[in-house]
Amino acid sequence: MTPFPFVRRVLAALTLSSATLVAQAADFTVAYQTTVDPAKVAQADGAYEKATQAKIDWRKFDGGAEVITAVASGDVQIGYVGSSPLAAAATRQLPVQTFLIAAQIGAAEALVVRNGSGIDKPADLIGKKVAVPFVSTGHYSLLAALKHWNIDPSKVQILNLAPPAITAAWQRGDIDATYVWDPALGVAKETGKVLITSGELSELGAPTFDAWIVRKDFAEKHPEIVRAFAKVTLDAYANYRKDPQAWLANPDNIAKVVKLSGAKAEDIPLLLQGNVFPLAADQVTALGAPTTQAVSATAGFLKEQGKVDKVLPDYAPYVSNQYITN
């Protein structure tokens, strides 16, 4: 036994302090969006914190472009983005990697036209004010829809507004149409009609998806955290897909999604059923050629529209399935 109990206490304190610092070093910030998905329940329940054994700072963002900026700055380690801002970020060669397909977008994003705006068919969009967050999946889908309808985008007044600003502008009557997601989508649908959804555009050859991305430096230091984060998300998806009707019949699930998304409870079923939430087995395949090709195609479209100045020869470095565990 050492004759220096004071020294023992100091050493013990230093050891505890070091352990605390190690634990704190793994704490991280997540940028989430107000999308409607089953994993919102896991977020509300603290399942991510439990699985990663880390303190998570959850920050709400209104669009993917803002998320990319935060991730690029280092303020955020993991972020939720759409395929369009992901393509823009990868093209800029930012240090990010897609580690999970969050959703293949269907009816959860749509082009809504105001009742009484005089827009009864696509051609009526010419000269009208259409709001959309720029470099978002909604923006990509809007441009893809206009291209499908042979409408020159320069003949439409396309306004760059964040979702909260879209809601305000819609309620004031300042805009004629919007391509957006919830909760702004739900507000617009109350006094408008859907002209086309992202699911319908996907069938026309312009698919969009949402994804979870991670800073490469964080993933290299803490791969176990990224795997745990992915597993919690996929477990939530599996729980929903096992019996969607039973899941939707649980008012606690609905309440948690409403709280974190801002969507109306009555809209949750349609929004969930309008998207596809890939399970682990699907993710392993998707996080390969299908996603890299989709990102490349999106980048090509963005280049056509002058949103990016080039297309990379290979987007594989920005996509990985190594964090998926069955």
UniProtKB/TrEMBL annotation:
<feature type="domain" description="Solute-binding protein family 3/N-terminal">
    <location>
        <begin position="27"/>
        <end position="244"/>
    </location>
</feature>
<dbReference type="GO" id="GO:0042597">
    <property type="term" value="C:periplasmic space"/>
</dbReference>
<comment type="similarity">
    <text>Belongs to the bacterial solute-binding protein SsuA/TauA family.</text>
</comment>
<dbReference type="GO" id="GO:0042918">
    <property type="term" value="P:alkanesulfonate transmembrane transport"/>
</dbReference>
<protein>
    <submittedName>
        <fullName>Taurine ABC transporter substrate-binding protein</fullName>
    </submittedName>
</protein>
<feature type="signal peptide">
    <location>
        <begin position="1"/>
        <end position="25"/>
    </location>
</feature>
<dbReference type="InterPro" id="IPR015168">
    <property type="entry name" value="SsuA/THI5"/>
</dbReference>
<dbReference type="Pfam" id="PF09084">
    <property type="entry name" value="NMT1"/>
</dbReference>
<keyword id="KW-0732">Signal</keyword>
<dbReference type="InterPro" id="IPR001638">
    <property type="entry name" value="Solute-binding_3/MltF_N"/>
</dbReference>
<dbReference type="InterPro" id="IPR010068">
    <property type="entry name" value="Peri-bd_TauA"/>
</dbReference>
